[in-house]
Design brief:
The chain has about 80 residues and is of the alpha+beta class. It has one domain: Glutaredoxin (3-Layer(aba) Sandwich). The chain has 4 helices and 4 strands, in the order E-H-E-H-E-E-H-H. A hairpin with a 4-residue loop joins strand 3 and strand 4. The longest helix is centred in the N-terminal third of the chain and has 12 residues. The termini are close together. The mean pLDDT is about 90.
Length: about 80
């Protein structure tokens, strides 16, 4: 399961969620506008943009948000999940 940190009206956030869904990955969405602790977490991690995609242990899955997901590909992400369980 992934955590995707997003904000409203963010086309890259929507694209990342659509990509994850289309590739049958489970994820939870965390809105940084509604959740100030999540925003603080991202800032502490050095992020200035969303989406940011983390695993369930809050370890960054892929740098680059949607573009990073797309470039890495579904097989590589599935391999990451398999190797981290």
């Amino acid at each position: 399961m992934f955590r995707i940190y997003t904000k409203p009206n963010c086309p890259y956030c929507d694209a990342a969620k659509n990509w994850l869904s289309a590739n049958d990955f489970e994820f939870e969405t965390i809105d940084v506008v509604e959740n100030p602790d999540a925003l603080s977490f991202l800032k502490a991690e050095g992020h200035k943009t969303v989406p940011q995609i983390y695993n369930s242990n809050n370890i960054l899955l892929v740098a680059g948000g949607y573009e990073g997901l797309k470039n890495l590909g579904a097989k590589a992400i599935a391999d990451i999940i398999k190797n981290n369980t």
